[in-house]
Amino acid sequence: MIVAQGIARRFRVNGGRAIEALSRVDLTVEPGCVCMLVGPNGSGKSTLLRILAGILRPSGGRALIAGHDVMDDPISARGATGFLPERTGLPPRLSALWHVALHASLRGALRRDGLDRSGSLLSIMGIEDSRHRPTRTLSRGNCLKVALARALVHDPAVLLMDEPSAHLDLRTASWLAATVRDRARAGATVLIATHDSGLVAQAGDRLAVLSEGRIVLRETVKR
Fold it and tell me: Is the pTM of this model over 0.85?
């Protein structure tokens, strides 16, 4: 479950002038729900996701991930979170398998268990034949799959995704929507920042619209 209560975030720019990226955002996403966070560029979508992922500190408010306070108990909150950033940040020389397995070990998995779990995820995603290749040799779509395997390798209760379908072909985008729905059916809480109306229609349950740092609309997605 995701709970954001009065989340605010201010940035200092141009010699100290403050810009408010988020202003008292309230958002609750229940387990088994896929919530789509939409809005124009600069509306605060990525900032909110990074706060929920424990990467940015809010200027005000409170965020809970699976019952854990992101600020007061960051280790537990991050342990319950899988985060797919807009830029995957894959190390170019590391193979897909070892990259995912490394994250499994950082989450507490034993070496053999982490390798097995990582290999299984990459097989499910259809890139088993590429698992020993350096990530720099993979297509953008396959890099996304590796990054998603990294986010899922510890079976998180909460999945946060930032523009996951950007630059994907139709086949990979359909695979992504199906994967998101599968995670929700398994009980995960999913929050996705996106401009992709197709992904919203295929995978979303709820819609939250951000504008100038505020949620201005909440709706149920009709499929």
Answer: yes
Q: Cβ(48)–Cβ(210) under 8 Å?
A: yes
How far is residue 120 CA from its own chain's centroid?
Answer: 20
Read off the pLDDT of residues 183-196 as tens digits, 9 standing for 90 and up: 999 999 999 999 99
Q: What CATH number did the domain enclosing 35 receive?
A: 3.40.50.300
Q: Which residues neighbour 147 within 8 Å (Cβ) at sequence distance 6 or greater?
A: 84, 85, 88, 89, 90
How far is residue 111's CA from residue 129's CA, in Å, rounded to a whole number? 21
One domain, residues 171 and 205: yes
Three-state secondary structure call for residue 5: strand
**pLDDT, tens digit, 9 for 90 and up, residues 38-78:** 999 989 999 999 999 999 999 999 999 999 999 999 999 99
Q: How many domains does the chain have?
A: 2
190: enclosing H helix or E strand: strand 189-193
